[in-house]
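Internal tracking record. Fields below are filled automatically when a chain is submitted to the structure queue. Please do not edit lines marked as system-generated. If the sequence contains nonstandard residues, flag them in the REMARKS field before resubmitting.
Queue: standard
Priority: normal
Entity type: single polypeptide chain
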Amino acid sequence: MIDLRLIRDEPELVRASQRARGASESVVDDVLRADEARRAAVSRFEALRAEQKQLGKQMPKATGDEKAALLSRTRELSAEVKAAEAAAGEADQALRRAQLALPNLVEEGAPAGGEDDYVVLREVGTKPAIENPRDHQELGERLGAIDVERGAKVSGSRFYYLTGVGAQLQLGLLQLAIAQAVEYGITPVITPVLVKPESMEGTGFLGEHASEVYRLEADDLFLVGTSEVPLAAYHSGEILPLDGPLRYAGWSSCFRREAGSYGKDVRGIMRVHQFDKVEMFSYCRPEEARDEHLRLLAWEEEMLAKVEVPYRVIDTAAGDLGTSAARKYDCEAWVPSQGRYREVTSTSNCTTFQARRLNIRYRDENGKPQTAATLNGTLATTRWLVPILENHQQPDGSVRVPKALQPYLGGRDLLEPR
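SYSTEM-GENERATED OUTPUT FOLLOWS
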């Protein structure tokens, strides 16, 4: 959530952020009203409590009618204090709800607008000249790598099997990502895929993204859509020694309902309910966050270079940032069968938004606790198999293996149709 003091002191700044997102400014006023109501409720409770304590001090000295009056007022006050305390608690919860409804403050320089208002920062690599390119599903089926038909038979639409070289490709890709993370001093982590509601809420996934999340009602647990969630909650309620960024690379299966995507990317494994991913996650001091964001982006681009696919980097528009991000850069790989770029990585600077919800802090130079910043970025995921297969396809349906992945496929440099 956004620092309440900032909303009080600079409400117009927050309203401008909402305008950039194309979102309602009224939520800012909702927070301000809830804040005012809470302060009034707390003030009333404290005043009544002070009177109650004062009467308690007078009681031992009082006699006769004075004591009777004090006893009567004490009984009245007891009920009033109880009601005022309940009202203050309710006002506090109302303020929290209002704050949780307000997305992060958009970073200065991020493009305004919606999904189509991104800015292309650069294009990298040469698009292959492929006449009548096969799509990744056809290539995968010929290679014995992807089985969508049996995935649908067993689990329903948007499920699949990766078999043979398909399984090897994914495992090799994710291991390559972990190896790169370790090379840069990032700690690898195998994370839980089930989390408590407070972990999901703390990272901002129970707001506008709630329809995307699978919930196990019997256990009141959620399946994660990214290891960003368990990695963010890993240090919840802690004070970290942030002498420099603290970085993790989480390997997990991820689950998304894909609500509202009916008819979109129904073929293949572009948009599915379950996939695997290596996600970078960083805790740092707020003043380090912008540089850390560019560092995560550079590591994503390094991985894309290793799998030898052309891509572009876009600066995502404010209206497409999601709840938690202040700035987001996406890498989109070229997909020959579609003749367009498709997102394969995303890196977000969430500033102090998640850490404030999860109470993650560090000590400044004076030893005073301050809220940390958090960032995340995709290092590799199942979707990468789409551009890898399609960009490296050969006229006969075989697929060239990028050099960096060859050790994970027994040294093979070519995958041939079965």
